[in-house]
Please model this.
Amino acid sequence: MAKKKNEGEIYYVDPRHVVKDKHWDAYAKNKGSNALNERPVMIGVQKNSKVQVSELTSKSTANKLNKDHSVRLKNTFPKKPSFVDTNTIGKSRLSKKPFKLGKEPLTTNKKSNIKVHPDDMTKYKDARTRKFNLKK
Model:
């Protein structure tokens, strides 16, 4: 399977694009004054210009790791704990439109200069394959 050009790129987006409407109040209460700070997301699946994103976090439980619900990014961020969720989001929860490269919120000015390490990306793909029983 050929690697897509943009898979593994990290963008910073408004959290309202990735947090469900029904969870927004609890999220805002939990984050306090930082609720509108941009959140990192990784492009996990790419089909032409449409992409699906996965959220990056600094915490994960052993249960999530064991069940392939999240993957540790050891090589991308070796000095700090980082995890990526194996579930993907295809549509913005704010605009209800599919995520597309170059369109809001995945514009070049929101793109990080860090890209996920190829070994971490392989682990992510393998975890998704095991979790969803996808064929390679």
In short: The first helix runs from residue 24 to 31. The mean pLDDT is 89.
